[in-house]
């Protein structure tokens, strides 16, 4: 049995419940000698899980190492196990519609799945949106339900079918490189600058659980960011701090960031 409580000092308190849940899973695999598969995890969670498995004799496999996606399912297995990619239990669904009259967005597709069908976010992987069609990675157990239930998303009539995972498209990178100047690396200041909102509005977004840093929910408006940090704002998009270009004569930070905002 593996006790990971000594590792808590390396993680944030809000991550403790996830660590406890994953530790229980690792102990089950170790005790029963049977593999287990997680729901879809974000990159931060995948990193944590791999670090928890590392000190053991178990094997760990993430679907993100085999399919180009952000969210992935992870297999934790005994040392005798040889990977069968089918064990990830991921289905790829293609959504097609008439682009002449509609252009579906990531948010509309996700909203239909979560709000109208009542599907938990952890059962859904990446959503890739192109003109006239989209692709959706889901827990295979949901496949029949999704295929037979969805006929409309927003105002668009849609057709759904399963396609092989080797037809997964690579996400198009619509990120823009932007140079900004800020007086502080505080989270609220950067959110306000990037979104072109007041500092009070930025603080409200942070305090109402709309902002994550490196996939971690944050609540402190005065948290300082560092180069490499990725900030996501629900309903707006995300940005990543790429380079620190020094200070202006007035002492402001000159930063280059990558920004992807929802249309």
TrEMBL record:
Keywords: RNA-binding. CDD domains: S4 (cd00165). One of its GO terms (molecular function) is RNA binding. Residues 185-245 form the RNA-binding S4 domain. It holds the Pfam family YlmH_RBD. It comes from the Bacteria. This is RNA-binding protein ylmH. It comes from Streptococcus dysgalactiae subsp. dysgalactiae.
């Amino acid at each position: 049995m593996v006790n990971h409580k000594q590792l808590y000092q390396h993680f944030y308190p809000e991550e403790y419940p996830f660590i406890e849940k994953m530790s229980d899973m690792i102990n089950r695999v170790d005790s029963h000698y049977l593999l287990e598969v997680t729901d879809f995890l974000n990159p931060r969670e995948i990193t944590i899980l791999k670090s928890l498995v590392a000190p053991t004799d178990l094997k760990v496999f993430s679907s993100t190492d085999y399919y180009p996606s952000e969210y992935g399912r992870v297999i934790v297995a005994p040392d005798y196990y040889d990977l069968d990619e089918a064990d990830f239990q991921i289905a790829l669904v293609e959504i097609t519609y008439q682009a002449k009259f509609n252009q579906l967005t990531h948010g509309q597709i996700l909203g239909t799945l979560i709000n109208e069908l009542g599907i938990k976010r952890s059962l859904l992987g990446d959503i890739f949106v192109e003109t006239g069609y989209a692709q959706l990675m889901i827990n295979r157990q949901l496949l029949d339900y999704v295929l037979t239930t969805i006929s409309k998303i927003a105002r668009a009539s849609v057709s759904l079918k399963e396609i092989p995972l080797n037809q997964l498209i690579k996400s198009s990178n619509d990120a823009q490189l932007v140079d900004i100047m800020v007086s502080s690396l505080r989270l609220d200041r950067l959110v306000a600058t990037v979104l072109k909102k007041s500092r009070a509005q930025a603080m409200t977004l942070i305090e109402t659980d709309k902002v994550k840093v490196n996939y971690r929910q944050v609540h402190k408006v005065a948290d300082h960011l560092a180069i490499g940090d990725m900030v996501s704002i629900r309903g707006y998009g995300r940005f990543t701090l790429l380079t620190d270009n020094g200070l202006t004569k007035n002492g402001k930070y000159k930063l280059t960031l990558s920004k992807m905002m929802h249309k």
